[in-house]
Every structure is written in C-alpha cells, then in structure tokens.
Amino acid sequence: MALVNDHFLKLPNNYLFADIAKKVNAFKAMHPKVNVISLGIGDVTQPLAPAVIEAIHKAADEMATSQGFRGYGPEQGYDFLREAILKNDFLPRGIHLDKDEVFINDGAKSDTGNIQELVRWDNSIGVTDPIYPVYIDSNVMIGRAGWKGDDGRWSNVMYMPCNAENGFVPQIPDRRVDIIYLCYPNNPTGTVISKEELRKWVNYALHNDTLIFYDAAYQAYIKDDEIPHSIYEIRGARKCAIEFHSYSKTAGFTGVRCGYTIVPKDVTAATLTGERIPLNPLWYRRQCTKFNGTSYISQRAAEAIYTPEGKQQIRATIDYYMQNASRMLQTLRQLGFECYGGENAPYIWAKTPETSSSWKFFEEMLYGAHVVCTPGVGFGPAGEGYVRFTAFGSHEKTDEALDRIRQWLK
Ligand SMILES: *Cc1c(COP(=O)(O)O)cnc(C)c1O
C-alpha cells in the first residue's frame, strides 16, 4: 500500500483562480449575451517582441540541421544567456556576480516552489501577507507550514501584514525566523520597497542568520530610479539572499517559459552541528538530478531581449501595460476608491467600500459592471477588504472596463 503524502491533504483543494472561473461561468450561464471583461488573472496579453520571434525562428532553423541540432543542454543554462544576464541585469547596477551563480529556469514559479527543498522541514518561515500563494503552498506540501487555522493562517508561518495602515511596508519581525519570502515589486499589492527598507531586511537577515528568498519577477516595471531592482544592490545581501527572476512579465514569456535564479556562492545554511554549507553547489546538485534544463529555443528567445532592438521592444510593451495602470489608477481614484500600487508594478490594489468583503465586492462588480477582479483575501488574510486589478489587458478592454465601472457606480 502506498501511503499518500498527507501534507497535500491540508491544502485547500480550491485554487483561487478556479474559484473565480466557477463564479464567472455561473454568471455567463445565466447571462449568455453579456461579455465579461477580466481585469483579474495576472497573465500578459500582448504578442512577443519581434526580436524574440526572430530568435525563436533562427533557433528552430538551427535545430533542423545536423550541425546546429542541440539535445540536452547544460542543466544550469547556456553560457550565452547567463553572460547576457550578468552584463545587462547586474553589472550596470554595480553587482558583480559569477556565471556559476546564475541558474536558468523554466520560469520563476518552479524555482520559488522548489527552493525550499534545500533546507530542513523544521525551519520556521515568514511571509508578507497578502502574498503570492506558491511560497506558502510549497511549504505546506512538505509539512513545514503546520495546520491552517480558522483565521486562514498556517500555524508554523509567521505573517507580516501589509495594509494601508502600515503603508504596505512590512514590519521587521521582533523575533527571529529562519526563512523569509519577499516579493518586490509586489504581487498582489503592486507596491514597492525602498532601498532603505530593504536594507533593514538584509541587516535583519545578517543579524539573525535568516535566509531571504527574494522574488523580483516584476523588477522590469520599476520606473522610479530610487527603487532597487535586485536585493544584491544592498551590501551584504549576497550572504543571505537567493533571488528569482522571470521573463514572463518582463517579456511576455508566460507561454515560452524562461527565467533565472541567483544563488550566490556566499549563501550558506547550517548543519545541526553548526557547520556552514554553501547552497550554490546543493542547488546545482538538485538541478542536475531533477531538472534537465530550459529549452534551447526559449533560452535564445530570452537572449534576444538583451539586444538593443529587444530592449526597446519589451520596454514598449511594458509602457503599454503601465499606461493601462495609470488610466486605472486615475479612474478608480476619481470614483472614490482608495488605491495602491500601479506606479512601479502592473497591479492595482484597491480597498473595497466599507461594507464589502473581497468576495462580495467581486460578485457585485461582476453582476453590476460585468468586470472581473481578483478578491484580495485569496492572497492571504490581510488581503480581506481589498481587490486586485491587473494592467495586462488591451487599452480597449481596459478602457471599456473602466467605463462600465463608472456607469455601474452612478
Ligand atoms: C508571475 C509571477 C512569477 C513568475 O512565474 P513564471 O513561472 O516565471 O511564469 C513569479 N512570482 C510572482 C510573484 C509572479 O506573480
């Protein structure tokens, strides 16, 4: 008899976006003629950049020849891409990393979920609340999160609430915790962290011997020069932080699949006897066993976004989305919503009217305006009373959705 990993049974079996789809489908079944606009799911909509398409075609043609054919690639990724990353994403910010500290992945979700394999099951973890659900769920699956209480919190997870009261800046914990997940610019709130605040986290981590998992999936959306794009802009971070990047939101790669993880050679974790073990070779070992690399074609596609044309083209798409964000911010604020984010991230986090829970407001807007948002409570208990709007739609759909919301509230 095979015994199931019963930690999986502790997970709520409903996935947030499946719940939303169910409610939207129920609405559509009753109102077959109404077209619903989604400002809900965090997927991009605009086509790939021409430079990326060209690189994909070229790589496919190479694969069609016996000289150009590539089979398994290096588990850590091809040198051409790792070198382009160092040269473009880090050196201009004064960050000197070694090529062996870059691990190409098939998107940041896999690595943000898998990285916790490197540490024992009985470490304590801390997360900002609300949060990208992968961080907690991946810890639940191996038994590190404990049990889910009636308040929606897991017993072994320390929650650092981010809300309007603290300006969405999480308080530095008053006790030590082994591992902390941070995501900036933040999904779902769209808020950012200043260098000064991030420095406090790095100092906390160095002082308390805490490991930071830093998700920088939205760094390409930062407009403000003062906001850090990488935690390694902070001195000392390479001793305590692992960082995740993704081309999904940067360059529309949600279907192409490519990103990278930085595991600095100076990051260590302890054995029970106190010996310090560098995590970089462990992650390499793990990848060689469980991961056979990202496709050559995807890696060539990613390389193309670092060419002058590629850079300009992906910038244009990001600007396009950010125009949506500023129209949304402006309209929602005019309509009296208290809104956050949307300036250095493609998400707007809006406070629901006084009497509405996240889900109640979601349903009211679906039935009243035929517009879909994401209930904030789906991202954690501190998300109750908020909803998330995404800027990833077309200008036309976004404008129409805003018009409908305006009409509905009249
Ligand atoms: C979209 C997203 C990612 C990236 O996912 P991919 O697997 O690279 O597509 C990672 N972290 C957060 C917070 C995200 O929202």
Describe the model.
- The chain has helices spanning 16-30, 50-63, 79-90, 108-114, 134-141, 195-208, 247-251, 279-290, 296-304, 308-334, 358-369, 395-409; strands at 37-38, 102-105, 125-129, 157-161, 179-183, 211-215, 241-246, 259-262, 268-270, 276-278, 339-341, 347-351, 371-372, 374-375, 386-390.
- It is an alpha/beta fold.
- It has twelve helices and 15 strands.
- It is globular and about 60 Å long.
- The strands form four sheets. A seven-stranded mixed β-sheet has the order 2-8-7-6-5-3-4, sandwiched between helices.
- The mean pLDDT is 96.
- Helix content is 37%, strand content 14%.
- The termini are far apart.
- It binds pyridoxal-5'-phosphate.
What's a concise summary of this model?
The chain is of the alpha/beta class and 410 residues long. It is built from 12 helices and 15 strands. The protein binds pyridoxal-5'-phosphate.
The Cα radius of gyration reads: 22 Å
Shape: globular
The strand order across the widest sheet is 2-8-7-6-5-3-4
The sequence of SSEs as H and E is: HEHHEHEHEEHEEHEEEHHHEEHEEEH
The distinct bound ligands, ions and cofactors come out as: pyridoxal-5'-phosphate
SSE map:
Blueprint: H1 16-30, E1 37-38, H2 50-63, H3 79-90, E2 102-105, H4 108-114, E3 125-129, H5 134-141, E4 157-161, E5 179-183, H6 195-208, E6 211-215, E7 241-246, H7 247-251, E8 259-262, E9 268-270, E10 276-278, H8 279-290, H9 296-304, H10 308-334, E11 339-341, E12 347-351, H11 358-369, E13 371-372, E14 374-375, E15 386-390, H12 395-409
Parallel strand pairs: 1-13, 3-4, 3-5, 5-6, 6-7
Antiparallel strand pairs: 2-8, 7-8, 9-10, 11-12, 12-15, 14-15
Helix pairs in contact: 2-9, 3-9, 4-5, 10-12
